User: Fold this.
Amino acid sequence: MQVVASLGMKRRAAFVMAAGILMTLGGSSGCGDPKVAMGTGTREYVASDYPQVLKRWTRNASLIVLSELDDLLTVTATYQSWDFRWAYVIRYAQDFRLTVDQRRTLLETTLNETRETHSFYIALYGSNRRWTDLTKPNSAWIVRLIDDQGNETAPVNIEAIPKPGALERTYFPYTTVWRQAFRIKFPRYYGNGRPSIAPDAKWFGLRFAGAEGNEELHWDIDPNAPQAAFGDGHVVKF
Assistant:
């Protein structure tokens, strides 16, 4: 009986922690989240801008059975856009005291990745840890990149991060011991050259679906901001 009670307390503690993380990061997906601009080009960020940029590109969602206080799936995901990557490099360069040349090289490398893939950093929690390992063939969940035009795309790579370290916990602070962390990449183009996110999409997002239910995270695109075709920009030299 004590073991059962202990497990119940741990589950409730995890539930409370997950709820607290969602409140800290601005609530559930789609509730007051800022619209995003997909334009490329030079940014004028300083290291202290990183938390706000992280928040802009991060979304949260939870699939919870309230009658059983059972958190089936809580997901937080950051889309590693051109804009996000620029802010990340500026913060990283300051933290690690990179030279100007080192910073330029790192920026060029990470921005060039947006030409080939749509990449996300994801941390999630579920009531059964084995079922929430997205790299396993028997995972309870499949994840897809979606948009409002009906496109649905499978990942080209899902990388588990077994033991998130200082980098993950510093730059993605929603990473905790309760959560499993992953890096997920989707192709920017299908084999026929068609983009996986439509150029005229009003939003794009991630869908987690399985036998226990489904949940989506959306990034609404600002129609009034200058747009680029998801990574068609050029690296600007310092």
Q: What stands out?
A: Residues 1-30, 233-238 have pLDDT under 50 and may be disordered. Residues 2-24 form the longest helix (23 residues). The helical segments are 2-24, 50-56, 82-95, 100-112, 166-171.
